Amino acid sequence: MDTKPSGARPARRSPRLPNSNSNAQGRSEELKEAKRKGKMDRSKGEDELVAQLKHLEVSRSLASGTGLVHSEEFTRHNCLWDPSHPECPDRVTAIMEELERRDLRPRCLAVEPREATEQELRLVHKKDYVDLMRKTQTMSEKELQTISENYDSVYIHPDSFRVASLAVGSLLELVDKVMTSELRNGFSVSRPPGHHAQFDQANGYCLFNNVAIATRYAQRQHRVKRVLVVDWDVHHGQGIQYAFEEDPSVLYFSVHRYEKAGFWPHLEASDGPVAGSGAGLGYTINLPWNKTGMTDADYITAFQHLLLPVAYQFQPQLVLVAAGFDCVRGDPKGEMEATPQCFSILTRMLMGLAEGRVLLALEGGYNLRSTAEASAACVSSLLGDPCPPLSSSSPSLSALTSISETISAHYPYWSRLQVLEGGPLADDVVIRHKANEEQVGETSPSPLGVMTTGLAYDERMMEHLNLWDR
Ligand code: X5A
Ligand code: ZN
């Protein structure tokens, strides 16, 4: 068997047709000439297109490697007046230990973190706010506590400004490296988180909005036109939503615990019918869960039926994930039931977009084990490992209702959603499908680390061709 294609060009062998004069009957010379021209133009255009595609393909296929940013510095930000605060330094340590334990760390390329510049922070934040945060470096514990109380759910440490700038800068480094194809994708094991931080305020354990700043940075620095931001942290990333709600160049998708605004941050702006405004109408997609206990099937269904159709229509050039793991089973805040393995699948689902330019940045996640395992599952997917099997189940009625409501809201804006009925689910209409579970049963896990791609090719396949229409 031949294992290599014979040449770089697509080997289209065109057969010589028997030279006949059969086209003499009644066809005008003009028509023949027009056809000949058309064929030439077409094949020229085709050749150019093929050449361009080849170039893209080649330059992009050189982009290999998963970048991993981490630094001991990320453990310096902590709460001086509440040592048992859930957003604690152990979170990133636990992730790094899990990556180590699963031998994932040496398979990644270490990317050096750097602090973001003032100019970069101001891509999203107000000057006065950045100045105030900078000043906190020399404040006493008392002053820090007072400043923190001006915000909802925030603590500030004398090192917070530096560490938060480092979290932003780390993600910017990853953006540089995937946009120049030095890396294929990446993960930032950083803190503090960012998706609640807003123009002029800290919020929800977040000081600077890492993902929002990285989005603007990619657009300014690398001329990226369309960025998809996926936020699977269990809390709604209202900071990201506010930053881009009028902006059609950023598609923001958030799936979060909502419970009819009963869950923090208690905003009606987190609900499914909210879709952005002005030119950005349709580019904010909220999927609010109104019950706890959402499973793998609920998350996967949301991706398959809502996010992915829209994302593939949007055609992003970069995908940024606000990767909080407080949505994983065992998290005290999220109270969801998604397994760590689910996040390897969700990550994999995004890797088909943007030529694989997918960057994950840690957000929340307060069960150390769940956060570490889910992070490792994501890194494993970024590295190209096969996804471990999930025990099958069906989406819950509550999840389907949420998904359906969001699809209804976005039905007018996205033709790729118009294959499904936009109406709300009527009671008793949904068939609760159990058959699949019985049929599939438990699948045996495939051996991890089998990484070779087989290629079946035989030149004799070229001999099957259409003789009368090349
Ligand atoms: C990043 C994140 C949660 C804030 C909860 C405040 N923040 N009650 O998960
Ligand atoms: Zn969260």
Q: Specify the structural class.
A: alpha/beta
**What order do the helices and strands follow?**
HEHEHHHHEHEHEEHEHEHHH
Main pleated-sheet profile = 8 strands, parallel
As a percent range, the share of helical residues equals 25-40%
Strand order of the largest sheet: 2-1-3-8-7-4-5-6
Q: What Rg is obtained from the alpha carbons, in whole angstroms?
A: 26 Å
Key descriptive features of the protein:
470 residues; alpha/beta; eight-stranded parallel sheet; binds N-(4-aminobutyl)acetamide; binds zinc ion
Concise account of the structure shown:
Helix content is 36%, strand content 9%. The protein is built from 13 helices and 8 strands. The radius of gyration is 26 Å and the shape is globular.
